[in-house]
Amino acid sequence: MKKQNNSESFSLPNPYPHIISALDQYYGIWDSYEKGKENKGKSRSSKNKSKKLKILITTFWEYPLVGGLQNYIADLKAGLEAKGHQVDVIAPNQFPEYYVEKAKPKIVKENKNFYKQRYGSYNDRILSNSSDLQLFEYMLGNINLKQYDIIHAQDRFTANVMGRLNESYQKPLLFTPHGFMTHTRLKFNLIKSGSVEEAYYLAIDRQAIKAANHLVVLCELFRPILKKLGAKDEKMTTVYTGIDFQAQERIRNKEKTVITCVSRLRPRKGHKYLLEAFSLIKNQFTNVELRIVGDGEMREELENQARVLQLNDVVFLGSRKDIPELLSQSDIFVLPTTSDTLPISVIEAMFAGQAIITTNCGGIPEIIQDQQTGLIVNPADSKQLAEKMLLLLQDKTLRTNLADNARSYAQKHLTISNMVTKIEQIYFSLLRKGGL
Question: What's residue 340's pLDDT?
Fold first, then answer.
């Protein structure tokens, strides 16, 4: 039975009609809050191509900070500035604390009352996220967005906020999804199918795509997922992540063959399958060492697993900053991930001239072609992983060929320069078309 719409009896503090519309539909309220609301802003700028642009890159997450997204932003910013453009990066943590202290309690209180009156209850996660969205908009509202030629949002939340603020400016707005968004949360049971959280986050996803003039896609695997959310092929361009990796001269160890895995120690990175695979071949070699580089919540469990399996040739090196040097000492690189998009560690291994074994997750098969630039195995398949490791340990010629091919591919396609040039071309293309 549908609830009667009692929206006239109290205020509507949430400025995001697509969110309220999705929640109304979930709770069965008759009249959509979004009904009849359309963007009737002025025409977009038809600025011609210029040599220098003023670009705003925005993110909902902290910046600067160590992490894949933050590194991507830093590299993009540096690359664009090297081409003579002016680039600003704005994140919530860059604003004075008094903004948060002044505004957030009021926003949370108003939203809580709104949800309770409209729906009879509220969801803690939705309350927190929707309040943070409004707080970020409040912060960004103090910035003159008119000064920028391009706005480039790096997550779905920022794309929602910038989409609203951009209604009056009509600047070309780009959106780069760095993950599969709600799709991934559902896949790993982080939210339940059919829940109010699914309705909320799908509304965020769809609006991010709707607000953007163009999507910069990190790998082809994103396309079908984004198309289901409303994206059009002609408004998506795939640009692989580029890195600046200073490969060091290879240091050959004549006494042993070194296998290296570089990754955070998290369940989805699949380290337990690597240890299981290594245990299956440990008795066939006496001169092989497996180095686990990285730290995380799985470290103690993985160290215990190695002891139980009596893997005396496994070394846990923890978090390290000398990855190029470590890879220069390595012969084989393995990333047994069970869920990923386009791992930077694999790209680093390509530049370092490693024979690579990894899984067919996310966009990995787009850069690691099986038997050409590396070897591909199924995720969570310890036996198959053991077979491929054994193959590379026995066949030095194959190791060399795969390593050389991987390095060549990376140098041609996966540099920062290549990434920045392609994104710059998208910027100018949007400006020539008036942002449309």
Answer: 87
Domain shared by 229 and 309, yes or no: no
234 and 284 part of one domain: no
Rounded Cα distance between 244 and 272, Å, is 30
> Which CATH number goes with the domain that contains 347?
3.40.50.2000
In the chain, the number of structural domains is 2
**N residues, the chain:** 436
Q: Is 10 helix (H, G, I), strand (E, B) or coil?
A: coil
CA distances from 273 to 5, 117, 166, 189 (A): 53, 50, 47, 21
Q: Using CB atoms within 10 Å of the CB of residue 278, give its burial: 0 to 12 exposed, 13 to 18 middle, 19+ buried.
A: buried
Asked if residue 249 belongs to a domain, the reply is: no
Tokens 């994103």 found at: 222
Whether this prediction's pTM lies above 0.70 is answered by yes
Judge whether 250 lies within some domain.
no
Calculate the alpha carbon distances from 144 to 56, 169, 419 in Å: 11, 10, 28
71 lies in which domain range? 7-242+418-432
Tokens of 228: 């289901």
Pull the structure tokens for residue 250: 């290879």
Task: Enter the tokens of residue 177.
Answer: 């999804």
Helix (H, G, I), strand (E, B) or coil at 326: helix
Q: Copy the structure tokens of residue 124.
A: 């803690």
Separation CA 351–CA 418 (nearest Å)? 14
Contacts of 417 (CB under 8 A, 6+ apart): 79, 242
Q: Which of 7-16, 208-217, 222-231, 318-327 is predicted least confidently? A: 7-16
